[in-house]
Write a structure and sequence with these properties.
Helix 4 packs across helix 11, helix 6 packs parallel to helix 7 and helix 9 packs parallel to helix 10. With 320 residues, the chain is an alpha/beta fold. The radius of gyration is 18 Å and the shape is globular. Strand 9, helix 10 and strand 10 form a beta-alpha-beta unit. 35% of the residues lie in helices and 18% in strands. The longest helix has 17 residues. It has one domain: Arginase, Chain A (3-Layer(aba) Sandwich), CATH 3.40.800.10. Strands 1, 2, 3, 4, 5, 6, 7, 8, 9 and 10 form a 10-stranded mixed beta sheet that branches. Keywords: Histidine metabolism, Hydrolase, Manganese, Metal-binding.
Length: 320
Amino acid sequence: MMENLLIPPPPWVGRMDGTSSHHLRWHQAVTPLRDGAEPGACVFIGFSSDEGVERNKGRRGASRGPDALRSALSSMALAEPLRAYDAGTVAVTDNRLEAGQEALGAVVAATLDAGQFPVVLGGGHEVAFGTYLGLAQAAVRTPRKRVGILNLDAHFDLRSDPVPSSGTPFRQILEREHAAGTTLQYSVLGISQPSNTTALFDTARGYDVRYLLDDECSVSDRHRVAVFVSEFLSDVDLVYLTIDLDVLPAAVAPGVSAPAAYGVPAETIQFVCDAVAASGKLAVVDVAELNPSFDIDNRTARTAARFIHRIATKRIPIVG
């Protein structure tokens, strides 16, 4: 299955100022993933999918997100040399979302088992179930280690729809954990009250989901945000960080499936990313909902690339 859905990575190209370490940019550091790639490296994995967004009655275009993210990241300068690879892109075709999620899970698990750091480039937020499957299957996920998912998002994505979509992944995850007899902490920062029904808030309470509303995450709310993230990190051993770009204000992130009328400032999102990267618990990260068809001056892609850059360059590896 994975062989049929995983397509080779595109070339990384960008501005070239020189070939020494003092001139290094991402496109000069990233090479196609090869067998035997060293542990500790950052590995990019694309997930090209519109299927989940369409099932959730959103606007198509997120399938072009992975390459737009690569392009936005390519010319960003690296302060010091970094080992990075591109594993290619899992492409969802012919409505085969579930097969695509399984294929993504296999790539993420293999990356984790090789001791590397997977950075998944979406794709609609249906990417989350695939990323989770990879972490759940990896050797690093043992019965003794509690997994925490921190979702930076305007939406809970806890819908109970009979057909999986970009609105259902975290309910799917929590149900799978319950069926397996394991536990998982799901926390969300940036929830928009007008974008989530009372039924969804009730569902969140039923699953013991912790959350902060978007209007509790301004720059002046830094202490509140810091406490929320610190308490989340203290309760878990392994972190899966997922960034839905619709958590940002529409002026910063117009190129998403559902632009935010209010949103969480980029300063707050970067603060959270820095804290999680420095925790020594971050196992995997993904970025979702970039829709290049609606982006203006690549604002959304550039902002997302900045977050990816910060996480990949500041992450403290998991020990033990």
